[in-house]
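Running co-folding for coenzyme A.
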Amino acid sequence: MIRPAVASDLAGIAAIYDPECERGLNTMMTRARTREEWSAWLREHDHPRHPVLVATDGVHVLGWASLSRWSEREGYARTAENSVYVHADAQGKGVGRALMLELLRSGEAQGVRLVIARINNGNEASVRFHESLGFQTIGVMPRCGQKFGRVIDVRIMGWQSTLE
Ligand SMILES: CC(C)(COP(=O)(O)OP(=O)(O)OC[C@H]1O[C@@H](n2cnc3c(N)ncnc32)[C@H](O)[C@@H]1OP(=O)(O)O)[C@@H](O)C(=O)NCCC(=O)NCCS
């Protein structure tokens, strides 16, 4: 089941994402968010163009996806940035795809026309995943990040709505 996230989902969302921050190279966050920071993050997404969706089996959060503001300048309101994370035990079963299809549908219905994905060099699974959803590579930001002492290139991919 895919539905908008509520505050009681935050522990499940954090359980998926915090280890990626502390130990993984798929996100440039380098530490786990505090509970207060997670609550503030959910409040920031209390906006129709910037939803947070969760996939659940009725008990557990299997994965989550969000659209975030790409720029504070109002002229860029039609552009948003996505995040998508699926629990390791639930990967490869279509959960990420179901989340993203609903996220793109819902963002498009609210006027989002370009969705940007920032993907760290080496995350080939995410590149293939985003390609399978129609994202195309826009470019690479060379050596723009650093985590665990490694300098990281970031690939920018984009999904374009066919609507005006
Ligand atoms: C990337 C991620 C979100 C994909 O979610 P998922 O639920 O595992 O993916 P799905 O099962 O929905 O796969 C949909 C399609 O994506 C592609 N894909 C997914 N995982 C893949 C992999 N490991 N290698 C190659 N292609 C892959 C395939 O085309 C797949 O379609 P198919 O099953 O018909 O071949 C998930 O693996 C994940 O959370 N990874 C760690 C966090 C991360 O990297 N997030 C993105 C940061 S930019």
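Result summary
The mean pLDDT is 97.
The longest helix spans residues 95-109.
Job closed.
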